[in-house]
UniProtKB/TrEMBL annotation:
It is a multi-pass membrane protein. The chain crosses the membrane at residues 6-23, 43-64, 76-95, 116-138, 144-167, 179-199, 219-240, 261-282, 302-325, 355-373, 379-403, 410-428, 440-460, 480-500, 506-525. The lineage of its organism: Bacteria, Bacillati, Actinomycetota, Actinomycetes, Pseudonocardiales. This is Sodium:solute symporter. Keywords: Membrane, Transmembrane, Transmembrane helix, Transport. PANTHER family: SODIUM-SOLUTE SYMPORTER-RELATED (PTHR48086:SF7), SODIUM/PROLINE SYMPORTER-RELATED (PTHR48086). InterPro entries: Na/Glc_symporter_sf, Na/solute_symporter, Sodium:Solute_Symporter. The keyword Transmembrane helix applies. Belongs to the sodium:solute symporter (SSF) (TC 2.A.21) family. It is found in: Membrane.
């Protein structure tokens, strides 16, 4: 074991023991029920900001660190897309979701569509969350491998077990305590990384590389299809960001949650920029490494003394915990609270907390299995998880928010069809991270099937009992606008198919047309016995009646 490896491992162990003790302190505040799952709704804006910064910025740092080593400055689009997601949640959705007292997205689906929907949505959600956890665990495991020779698979298993130790005690209060400490470690990591950057390659060497390595400084080097997939996935994920809503929803008021999210978007900017710079610096100093997450620790260890190397990778460990801990806990909440409630509707708050603690053990096992399956391309695990979870729950959530007509059977079918479509498309493409079957990313396929299934099954089941109309004039205006948009996007897609497909945008275009058609259907197709306005020419005034949802 190298000196850098000893410092890295030693600091990580001491740090984790401190977090486990914090979990025991949090246990005194966790209690049961809402206190365990959402901190008793007592978080301040700063607590929310630190929780969300630990979640998103830690994850972005690791994903961008690897991407920037291979694709240069264009990896910044990943961080920009994730920041857009946080801003949209803050400005549009945290208020309505907090007022609904949402704990989980799968629980919200179950509240509207019943026990089977709650159980299926909870199980699918729980299955995907360990994928997000393993994506960041791979980063620290790669550092341990580089310094100590310890197997990456063993290091991922070690990470999963440590997460289990401190999460099972204090629930959401454990998240609050540990995310605060993680953000302090982020700051130390950035400072140490800047020291390494300005030593080698230095600012002058970095600028000179723009001439010798121009491909690393091209904003589109990562490829337009992947950039589109990032933005599309993050934007769609806005209404499905369960871990974020669970943390931000733990706030005292919706306004506190909004301020916390805006602060988190601001706090994340230095981490995004730092990850781009450090990954590119590693590429300049140690090019041609297969794994970017192995190249970065080797670069840092060549430039800095062992204690500072240990501090830097303590920050990477904090990034791992900052993302993986909320993911494991939120997935366990879906499995324990939602699936448990679906199986046992009479379960008490104490029972649901116990089920969730058992679920954390299952999440740990899944994380270890996923880590054994693939240890490269950590960002790929993130996108796979979004594809499968969003492909299952996107349409049902829209049904909860916008379409009273949606039926339970349609939601059951949409959950299963969207999930299987995403997996099936990956299988047809050979599970290759950067190449997709027929050149279409699975995320668009899964969500398109999800939407189409919900609409089709609902309209078949309600045939003869519906009418084309709207309950308010405003709903009519918006619905007709979406209908016109769906026709326009469909025509543009057909006309420009060759260009769209060759640039990786055909899947997005079809999904855009289908989403617009779905929104028009949700707004304009109502029960026949509902009071509805005639869908004719829009008159020159807007009804004062609020939109029904």
């Amino acid at each position: 074991m190298t000196a850098a490896g000893a410092w890295t491992l030693g600091l990580a162990l001491v740090y984790t023991l401190a977090l486990i003790l914090a979990g025991q302190v949090a246990k005194r505040r966790a209690g049961r029920g809402d206190s365990y799952f959402v901190g008793g709704r007592q978080f301040t804006a700063l607590t929310v900001a630190l929780c969300v910064t630990g979640l998103f910025s830690g994850s972005s740092f690791i994903a961008i660190l690897e991407l920037s080593y291979h694709t240069g400055i264009s990896s910044i689009w990943y961080g920009i897309a994730e920041t857009v997601q946080i801003l949209l949640i803050a400005l549009v959705f945290i208020g309505p979701f907090r007022r609904r007292m949402v704990v989980t997205i799968s629980g919200m689906i179950g509240d509207r569509f019943g026990r089977v929907a709650r159980g299926v949505a909870g199980a699918i959600t729980a299955f995907t969350f360990p994928m997000w956890s393993v994506a960041t665990a791979i980063a620290f495991a790669s550092a341990l491998y580089a310094f100590t020779g310890l197997s990456i698979h063993v290091a991922v298993a070690f990470t999963a077990l440590l997460l289990l130790l401190y999460l099972s005690s204090g629930g959401m209060w454990s998240i609050a305590f540990t995310q605060t400490v993680n953000c302090m470690a982020f700051l130390l990591m950035l400072l140490v990384g800047l020291v390494a950057f300005f030593i080698t390659p230095g600012w002058s060497g970095f600028v000179a590389a723009a001439a010798s390595h121009p491909e690393s400084f091209e904003m589109g080097a990562v490829g337009l299809p992947l950039i589109i997939a990032w933005f599309g996935t993050f934007i769609v994920n806005v209404i499905l960001a369960q871990a974020t809503f669970q943390m931000a929803g733990s706030c005292q008021t919706p306004a506190e949650g909004r301020r916390g999210l805006l602060l988190a978007a601001l706090f994340g900017i230095p981490l995004i920029l730092g990850a781009v710079g450090f990954g590119m610096a590693a590429d300049l100093v140690l090019p041609d490494q297969k794994l970017g997450l192995v190249a970065v620790p080797l670069y840092i260890s060549q430039v800095l003394p062992a204690p500072l190397v240990g501090v830097f990778f303590l920050g990477v460990w904090a990034c791992t915990l900052g993302w993986a801990a909320p993911c494991q806990f939120s997935g366990a909440t879906s499995l324990g609270r939602d699936v448990g409630q679906a199986i046992n509707p009479e379960a008490s708050d104490r029972d649901l907390v116990r089920y969730t603690r058992w679920a954390l053990i299952a999440m740990t096992g899944l994380m270890i299995v996923f880590g054994a399956l693939r240890t490269e391309q950590s960002a790929w695990w993130n996108v796979l998880a979004w594809t499968l979870r969003n492909g299952a729950t996107f349409a049902p959530v829209l049904g909860v928010l916008l379409w009273p007509l949606a039926t339970r059977r349609a939601v059951h079918a949409a959950l299963i069809a969207g999930f299987l479509a995403g997996i099936g498309w990956y299988q047809l493409g050979g599970w290759i991270p950067t190449k997709y079957f027929l050149g279409v990313h699975p995320v668009w396929v899964g969500m398109s099937v999800n939407l189409l299934t919900l609409m089709t099954v609902t309209l078949i089941e309600t045939a003869g009992t519906t009418r084309f109309g709207a309950t308010t004039d405003l709903r009519r205006r918006v619905g007709l606008g979406f209908l016109a948009a769906s026709v326009a996007v469909a025509l543009a897609t057909g006309w420009g198919w060759t260009w769209l497909h060759s640039n990786g945008m055909s899947g997005l275009a079809v999904f855009g047309a289908l989403t617009s058609l779905s929104m028009a259907t949700f707004l304009l197709v109502q029960r026949a016995d509902d009071a509805a306005t005639d869908v004719g020419p829009v008159e020159g005034h807007t009804s004062a009646v609020p939109v029904r949802s």
